[in-house]
Every structure is written in structure tokens, then in C-alpha cells.
Design a protein that fits this description.
Layout lengths: L5 E2 L24 E5 L4 E8 L2 E7 L9 H4 L5 H10 L1 E8 H5 L5 E2 L3 H4 L6 H10 L2 E4 L7 H10 L5 H34 L3 H17 L1
Helix pairs in contact: 5-6, 7-8
Amino acid sequence: VHVRPLLVGSGGETTPPPPGDYDTSCFKRGDLLEVPRTLFIHFGIYLGENRVAHLMPDILPSFTDDLRQIQQVVTNKRLILGVIARTASVRVDTVENFAYGGSILVNHMDRLFEDQVLGSEEAARRAEKLMGTTAYSLLWNNCEHFVTYCRYGAPVSFQTDKFCETVKMIIRDQRSVLASVLVGLASIVCLGLAPSTTLPTIFIPFFLWMAG
């Protein structure tokens, strides 16, 4: 995967460097780094000297205080178990390990907060103060909550909000299909409609709902 740092207001994209080669000269201490991935976006705060503070689910801090083991790159197994156990850590990794082969956006969220952006040094200091083990919640305390608190002073997560809206929409759609089935069955009982002509029409959406 080619990696290309993108700067807000730069007017275009830089030429993609070789895989794993990141130009950190365009990053400033306190910058918010954003890495779009397949199903989600990962966030971190740049601390300078090729170091990124970011919150990651991790089960290992629940079993050991050995910083040498904890500081090793988080595997998928550690991450998934951390999500299940609701355990995470705010850790520092290199830009390469943080981005994991993805393209990096720099301060891309600033446009959403306008005058709420804190000073770069304040954002970096907030990130450093939160270093260590913490509780994890997909809805209330994820990597996006961490960076928005550090850079904008308020922990929010837009991708969590979007996820919740999608779930609500699915629930509403399924309820509407179920309601139409119940109304159809009620019409058969109350109006005495012929089952041979009515039932197939009613149960088609019901079977589709069950299959979904």
C-alpha cells in the first residue's frame, strides 16, 4: 500500500512514497493524524520525533505491568480481546506502526470544529497526560474520543454516531416490515379476505425480512 500524507488546504496530494516510507517533516507536534481503514478510521496525536500517541483496545495490560511486552505492536488477537474485555491503553508508537500501511490525513477534522482547536502544545500535553491503561468503549471511549478531547477539548466520535444511526435505521426498517405483515394478517381476520390471494402478498416481505 502506498502512503501519502495529506495536508488540509495543500491543494492536492503529494506523490506516493514507497510503502512504509512516511515523510514526518510535514507533521507538527500536536497534529491530529487520521488513518482511514476498511471499516473504520483510526486516530492519533503526533508528539514529534516520529512518535504518535493513540488509544488502542488491548487485553495485555489486564495481565501484566511489563512495559516491554505491552509496548510491542498490538496483534489482532490482543485488539479483539481488548474490545471484548473493554480494556485499552493510550500508547506511543512510531508513525509506521500507527498507520500500519494506510494513508495519513493531517488535521482533517479541524474544519468540523472551527474555533475550538486548542494550541498544538496543549493537544500534545493532553495526550501525554493520558498515557497508560484505560477503559475502552466503542460508544463512549474510543480512539476518536481520545483525539477530539486532546485537540478540541471535547470527546466526541462522529463514526460512532454514524454507526448508531445506521443501527436505528435497520431496526426501523425491520419494524415497518413486521408491522405490514401484522396489518395484512389482521385484514384477513377482520375482512375475510381470501387466503389464497392474500397470503402470498403478505408473506413475501415477511420472508425477506427474516432472510435479512
